[in-house]
Specification:
Oligomer: single chain
Structural class: alpha+beta
Distance between the termini: 26 Å
């Protein structure tokens, strides 16, 4: 942390002088007194760092300040700061460089100031970078969603553009450049400034170029960024004593957890996502304090649609303002909720039942929780809206179990469940997990609530009758839906596919071929296409059924065995379980599910956690034959070997792999030029291993 500072003893004084001069130049940045006050309070702040590939991530949370700083080394330098407040941020992108640059991060501390009577919160950081010159490409300030789109190569609206200002006072000699603007509705906005004490920002041919005073010397850069958006409230007491002793996961979870909501992941998803909240709550439930679980479920209920659908994502802060301006022509900051996803609608009943009925702590406070609420809406009333929506959605398939009566993606949408990239479910229309797992789990949860009588005061007799009829169909739903997704291959066909696919992607097929043993193959497709045909992509969503269902022992052995075969016959690699394997699909599908695809042959931490939790739940059953238990224990050990092998990236959203010298090796997702996005260093549902004691010792 302090290496660069030790080498540059004069840097701190220069930085404070620069900060003072910038403040005099009307920047919303800290004075020396404010900076020192922040430094004195920094000892109580949450601070941690994660390095992945070329990205150094620094996280800070201290009361009303929460910020995530990214420094990109390599050929595409970048400085970016994301704030949970308003899902806002500020980033500076530089032109690609011929010789890769290297950032070294020094001290990071909270930054607080008052500008025109409004509080601005942010961070101040010191860094060095080795570069002969850096050419500023652009700076983007505002919603993280705008920054996210810009990172993916998209533009932004002219109304959110910020103009760079080189501070050219005699005392500064062009050593600072800053961007600052108000929110488009006039509310307090965003600022970012870069200051150097041994270099200059100069305009050349319409560009701003930063060079060191002396060639070959590392530039010493002071970074300050702040937002005027309303801060969130961290939990003072988040975990109980049962949580695993994993500092990095604890830190990531703390940074992403607030009384108002849990954040899906930083930097790209610093706000509420319904599915991420629900699945993280379910997996973390044993180690969370009751107030945290209550707050998480309440955040989902508060965002339901009038007919009971769960909100996927929210537009808040300036992004909400922009959306209202575009759609209604008015500058409102009221949140806008997205209901395009369908899986989260059916997750809510199962997760709510797990807490309010199955967990003794949740059951004890269930009546008080359901009776509480805001703005005249009780939590119990909101939950019933969702249960009625689920019941209504189940009735067509219950009457006539044909594929066209399953729960489909919404008209015109290519996505609808957690694999929410365009190729996520192989261009299918009916997702396996939604129909064969989540709907039956939701219907069973409805039955649990009815049996407990917990919702009697929130329902009418007619509603209870309709809910009871829907709940009674859970078993038939599961049986008929599962049959529609079943794929059958002969032993010869499966072997041929594995051999050809291994050759295509350049990996060994020896362990995979041995695992097939020439036997016929039967597995569950990732989705059905628009004509009801299975999309034969092997996938990790079977973990959901292990976590929420009760498969027959023979089916359990078959399906777990399919997944735990060595890749490319199954999903298991040395660096983790991939979430999709197109080996048994047609050759044109292979390229669309590669290891640079967001939901392709890549490893997602939380999917491994779902599988681990699901295997544990099945092993806790008392009705399994000894041979089934032995097979599940072997699968559990194999799964955890991969989990342990990827310990260095355990809180990441996802990672990829390379294959060389006969082995798979971790590759940070987003580091490769072909990767279609980049991974968050801190992902909410990647912290859920805090509730999963490993059955093996990770070395």
């Amino acid at each position: 942390m302090g290496l660069a500072m030790v080498r540059r003893r004069g840097f701190r004084g220069a930085r404070l002088r620069s900060a003072l001069l910038l403040a005099l130049a009307a920047l919303p940045l800290a004075s020396p007194a404010q900076a020192l006050a922040s430094a004195q309070g920094a000892s109580t702040a949450l601070q941690f760092r994660i390095t992945e590939g070329n990205i150094e991530n620094a996280f800070l949370q201290d009361r009303d300040v929460a910020a995530h700083l990214l420094l990109n080394s390599g050929e595409k330098p970048r400085v970016l700061v994301a704030f949970p407040a308003g899902n806002s941020g500020a980033g500076v992108w530089f032109e690609p460089v011929s010789a890769p640059v290297q950032w070294t991060l020094g001290q990071v501390q909270p930054l607080r100031q008052t500008v025109d009577g409004h509080a601005w919160n942010g961070i101040a950081a010191d860094a060095t970078v080795m570069a002969d010159q850096l050419v500023l490409k652009d700076a983007v300030l505002g919603s993280v969603r705008v920054l996210r789109d810009y990172q993916l190569g998209q533009g932004y609206a002219a109304q959110v553009a910020a103009t760079p200002q080189i501070v050219a006072q005699p005392q500064l000699a062009e050593r600072s450049v800053r961007w600052q603007r108000q929110r488009v509705d006039g509310a307090p906005g965003y600022a970012i400034a870069l200051t150097v004490d041994n270099g200059r920002f100069q305009r050349e041919d319409g560009r701003i170029v930063l060079r060191p005073d002396r060639v070959g010397e590392a530039l010493r850069v002071h970074i300050e960024a702040s937002t005027g958006e309303t801060p969130l409230t961290p939990f003072a007491d988040l975990l109980n004593s049962d949580a695993q002793d994993d500092p990095r996961s604890r830190q990531a979870l703390q940074f992403l957890s607030y009384r108002e909501k849990f954040l899906a992941g930083s930097w790209r998803f610093d706000t509420y996502f319904g599915r991420d909240t629900l699945m993280s709550l379910r997996l973390l439930m044993p180690v969370l304090q009751p107030a945290a679980v209550d707050a998480g479920i309440a955040s989902v209920l508060a965002r339901l649609s009038p007919d009971g659908q769960v909100a996927h994502e929210e537009s808040i802060g300036e992004f909400a303002v922009l959306q209202h301006l575009k759609e209604q022509g008015k500058a409102s900051a009221d949140p806008v909720y997205d209901y395009v996803m369908v899986d989260d609608d059916y997750m809510l009943p199962a997760v709510a039942a797990a807490w309010l009925l199955e967990d003794p702590r949740g059951r004890q406070g269930a009546q008080a929780f359901l009776g509480s609420g805001e703005n005249g809406q009780r939590q119990g009333d909101a939950l019933v809206r969702n249960l009625m929506f689920v019941a209504a959605s189940s009735e067509a398939f219950a009457r006539k179990p044909v594929y066209s009566n399953l729960v489909a993606l919404k008209p015109g949408s290519k996505v609808g469940q957690w694999r929410d990239s365009n190729e996520g479910i192989g261009r299918g229309r009916y997702a396996y997990d939604v129909n064969a797992v989540w709907m039956p789990a939701a219907l069973r949860a409805i039955g649990q609530f009815l049996d407990a009588g917990l919702l009697d005061q929130y329902t009418t007799p007619a509603q209870r009758e309709r809910l009871r009829a829907a709940a009674a169909g859970a078993g038939d739903w599961e049986r008929h839906a599962t049959a529609l997704f079943t794929v059958h291959l002969s032993g010869a066909q499966a072997a041929r596919q594995v051999s050809d696919y291994a050759r295509e992607i350049g990996v060994s097929d020896t362990p995979a071929m041995a695992s097939l043993k020439g036997m016929p193959l039967e597995f569950l497709a990732i989705a059905l296409d628009a004509q009801g045909h299975p999309v034969p992509v092997l996938n990790s969503d079977e973990g959901f059924r292990l976590l929420f269902g009760r498969p027959d022992p023979a089916v359990l052995e078959r399906d777990v065995g399919n997944l735990m075969r060595p890749f490319p016959a199954g999903l298991r690699t040395e660096v983790g379980m991939v979430v999709a394997n197109p080996v048994y699909a047609s050759h044109d599908v292979w390229a669309r599910f590669g290891n640079s695809a967001y939901h392709g042959t890549v490893i997602w931490a939380w999917q491994q956690a779902v599988m681990a939790a699901g295997l544990k739940r099945q092993l806790d059953r008392g009705d399994l034959p000894a041979v089934t238990r032995t097979h599940l224990e072997a699968a559990q050990a194999q799964l955890w070997q991969g989990i342990c092998a990827a310990n260095a990236v355990r809180t990441s959203e996802l990672w990829s792999w390379s294959y060389r010298d006969g082995h798979y090796h971790i590759a940070p997702f987003g580091a490769g030029g072909a990767d279609e996005d980049e991974s968050n260093a801190a992902q909410l549902w990647s912290t859920v291993f805090l509730a999963l004691p490993p059955p093996v010792t990770c070395r």
